[in-house]
Amino acid sequence: MSEKTEKVKVLIIGSGPAGYTAAIYASRAGLSPVLYTGSQPGGQLTITNDVENYPGYPDGVMGPQMMEDFRKQAERFGTEVRYGLVTGVDFSQRPYTATIDESKEILADTVIISTGASAKWLGLESETRLNGKGVSACAVCDGFFFRGQEVAIVGGGDTACEEASYLANICSKVHMIVRRDELRASQIMQKRVMNNSKIEILWNHETKEVLGEEEVVGVRLVNNITGIEKELTVGGFFVAIGHEPNTDIFKGLLDMDDNGYIITHPGTTKTNVPGVFASGDAQDHVYRQAVTAAGTGCMAALEAERYLAANELT
Fold first, then answer.
1. Which of 206, 239, 272 is the last residue of a domain?
2. Model confidence at 272: pLDDT above 90
3. pLDDT above 80 (res 2)
4. CB-based burial, 113-150: b 16+ in 10 Å, e otherwise
5. Which comes out higher in pLDDT, residue 69 or 2?
6. What is the reported pLDDT for 1?
7. Same structural domain, 111 and 139
8. CB proximity list for 177: less than 8 A, separation 6 or greater
9. Residue 100 maps to which CATH number?
10. What are the pLDDT digits (tens) for 7-64?
11. Is 159 exposed, middle or buried (0-12, 13-18, 19+ CB in 10 A)?
């Protein structure tokens, strides 16, 4: 084995709640996991300010601090956390091979994928600048901070309708910005939005700019048909145009749905490749919460441990 090749029992790809939780369980089981953080150590929570819905933090916690706590706990039990990007994998034979930063190779008896997903954004400078300061891609995560206020949400699919309905329960009014003259959502979700008096749908509108210096104070829109611009005074701006799972390097190797989410056997984190497990938002397009990601990270580690034992690899 060359200096550029290393053998491990458990390789964890990704460092959000799923990856770190998998690392905690795997390391406590004596499996000496190696975790590669990826290009965004800590995942999406590192761009989240206040996290108030994760158990164990009664006063809330900053997203980056929460991920630092997860990392320290994983390292305490022996996880080796490494900064690096997995740029390729080979699942054709065991031990499986992962290429790190296009140079080093890791041979792994089991692999836990926790690469997460990334929210799709509009691509506005103001949207990026005010991210975490009133701009959010998760109403369930951040809607509570805008209770009693007027907010805006962009999107016309099921996710946008679901999040608009959620926001309507806690906000005084929800402006739903839809760039077409119809919703893409299912009929039941369309009816739910259209029958909610607290949701105003702005058809044929697009966002030109999110307004505010230190926090969101409004949004500037343009009518796609007339070209007329208008401004709304809102305290929160939610983007609900979809998420993209970070699973490109696994395409053609693992079963995925049409949107690139890894398909796991029902009730497990098992993929179609024995010994390869998927956890967190890389395989979850429904809940996308830190606590559910952590739960599947736990499942993946327990299943990896059982796989190793069953194949006499411990």
1. 239
2. yes
3. no
4. bbbbbebeebebebbeebbbbbbbbbbebbbebbeebb
5. 69
6. 53
7. no
8. 152, 153, 154, 155, 202, 205, 206, 207, 219, 221
9. 3.50.50.60
10. 999 999 999 999 999 999 999 999 999 999 987 777 878 777 778 889 999 999 988 8
11. buried
How far is residue 129 from each of residues 140, 215, 281, measured CA to CA in Å?
Answer: 21, 9, 25
Asked about 141 being catalytic, the answer comes back as: yes
Q: What span, in angstroms and rounded, lies between the C-alpha atoms of 214 and 130?
A: 7
**Tokens describing residue 151:** 């907010």
Q: Taking the C-alpha atoms of 197, 221, 128 and 155 in order, what is their torsion angle to the nearest 10 degrees?
A: 50
- Would residue 161 show up in a list of annotated catalytic residues for this protein? no
Q: Which domain holds residue 202?
A: 121-239
* Helix H or strand E segment including 118: strand 117-119
Helix (H, G, I), strand (E, B) or coil at 141: helix
Find the catalytic residue in 109, 138, 281, 298.
Answer: 138
- Which one from 109, 142, 281, 284 is the annotated catalytic residue? 142
Catalytic residue among 69, 101, 141, 258: 141
261 with 245: CB under 8 angstroms? yes
Tell whether 101 and 164 lie within a shared domain.
no
Q: Which amino acid is at 8?
A: V
> Rounded distance, CA 42 to CA 57, Å?
17
> 187-229, pLDDT tens digit by residue?
999 999 999 999 999 999 999 999 999 999 999 999 999 999 9
Span 170-176, average pLDDT = 97
- Identify whether 138 is a catalytic site residue: yes
DSSP class of residue 8? Answer: E
pTM of the model: 0.84
